[in-house]
Write a structure and sequence with these properties.
Number of strands: 4
Largest sheet: 4 strands, antiparallel
Order of helices and strands: HEHEEHE
Shape: elongated
Structural class: alpha+beta
Helix content: 25-40%
Length: 98
């Protein structure tokens, strides 16, 4: 009986911490105002600094004013609003495309 109670208490502590429901997410962003070769680097570094982001890939192959950024992040640490705000804060507005 004590083991059952101990297991229940442990389970309750784990699930109430919120960490039991965290998940890795991937989002694709359309990033605007790309006008030079250093723009993708700036966007990548900006997104990489957002807490919870584990991977960033910025594609600027078309050399247009728009780039595509694929971001992998932990949803318990950040969200899409924080990612788009980070790029907008450095002059590169972004929106979700996938």
């Amino acid at each position: 009986m004590r083991q059952i109670i101990a297991a229940a208490v442990l389970s309750l502590a784990f699930f109430s911490s919120g960490e039991g429901f965290a998940a890795e997410r991937r989002v694709t962003l359309r990033v605007e105002n790309m006008f030079c070769a250093s723009c993708p680097f700036i966007v990548k570094q900006t997104l990489a600094r957002v807490p919870g982001v584990s991977e960033v890939d910025v594609s600027y192959e078309q050399k247009s004013s728009v780039a595509i950024a694929v971001v992998v992040y932990e949803d318990s640490e950040t969200d899409i609003a924080a990612l788009t705000a980070a790029t907008s804060d450095v002059g590169f507005p972004s929106t979700v495309i996938q």
